[in-house]
Design a protein that fits this description.
CATH class of the largest domain: Mainly Alpha
Number of strands: 10
Bound molecules: adenosine-5'-triphosphate, magnesium ion
Strand content: 15-25%
CATH topology of the largest domain: Transferase(Phosphotransferase), domain 1
Order of helices and strands: EEEHEEEHHEEEEHHH
Strand order of the largest sheet: 1-2-3-5-4
């Protein structure tokens, strides 16, 4: 497999991400990093398992029509995924850019909520909904990336937690963007209202929109009183 690295976009604890070219087209290479504190054999097995899970979900979501990176290659031996690049800026940069109006941000957060509901309607919890893992395209669409911790699930609580993670990040890192979560929740319910209840998936009925929103409220109250 020929991938030519051009620019390193990210160096994290779990992965290193490069922009480059693959078979002549511009693409992203996500390389898993070894965790030195784990036994190498265990690390290899865990790493491969997680990488395959991420690759599977990418394929499944892409096929279901979601705007997610297109998986181009899954190289088990070198523990790397090659995928299409999503053009845009991470949501964290948009929220920190004071030249972007509150009105535009509202629109973007609304689209973010819609994308999250689209994901949840496929019975997939993201598991790490940080503002780094949401890319905003030049058309202000919100594209979710990084399915390294994502899973197929049918438990309401896990979907509520997905929203709560984003809520906490919005409050802690972007307090100047007032009521940000409300715009996300509006988009979340607007999508379902426009499309009707989610269709059955092979594993069962995905958790309904109202159930997730109610659970999110409950989690928010629980955390407020019990820390
Ligand atoms: N398909 C993609 N298109 C555009 N940018 C991407 C893409 N995939 C990853 N990136 C960029 O690389 C960053 C890190 O990728 P990703 O979130 O998938 O890794 P990670 O699992 O969070 O790694 P770590 O846990 O080590 O921090 C993203 O926040 C994003 O900026
Ligand atoms: Mg990430």
């Amino acid at each position: 497999m020929v991938f030519i690295d051009e620019q390193r976009l990210h160096l994290g604890a779990e992965a290193e991400v490069w922009l480059g070219s693959w078979m002549g087209q511009s693409a992203i290479r996500k390389q898993r990093r070894n965790r030195s504190w784990r036994h190498p054999d265990l690390d290899d097995r865990l790493g491969r398992r997680r990488m395959i899970a991420e690759a599977r979900l990418l394929v499944r979501l892409y096929r279901s029509g979601l705007n997610v990176p297109l998986l181009l290659d899954c190289d088990m031996y070198n523990q790397q995924l090659i995928m299409s690049q999503i053009q845009g800026k991470p949501l964290i940069d948009i929220l920190n850019d004071s030249s972007i109006s509150d009105e535009t941000v509202r629109d973007i957060l609304n689209n973010t909520g819609q994308s999250i509901r689209m994901l949840h309607r496929q019975a997939v919890v993201h598991g790490d909904l940080s503002t780094n893992n949401i890319i905003i395209t030049p058309q202000n669409e919100a594209v979710l990336i990084d399915f390294g911790l994502a899973r197929i699930e049918y438990e309401t609580e896990l979907f509520g937690i997905d929203l709560h993670v984003l809520f906490e990040i919005l409050g802690a890192s972007h307090p100047h963007r007032k009521n940000a979560i409300d715009a996300v929740l509006e988009g979340y319910s607007a999508y379902e209202n426009a499309h009707g209840p989610a269709k059955n998936t092979p594993g069962g009925q995905p958790v309904g929109m109202q159930d997730v929103l109610d659970r999110f409220d409950l989690i928010r109250t629980r955390v407020r009183y019990h820390g």
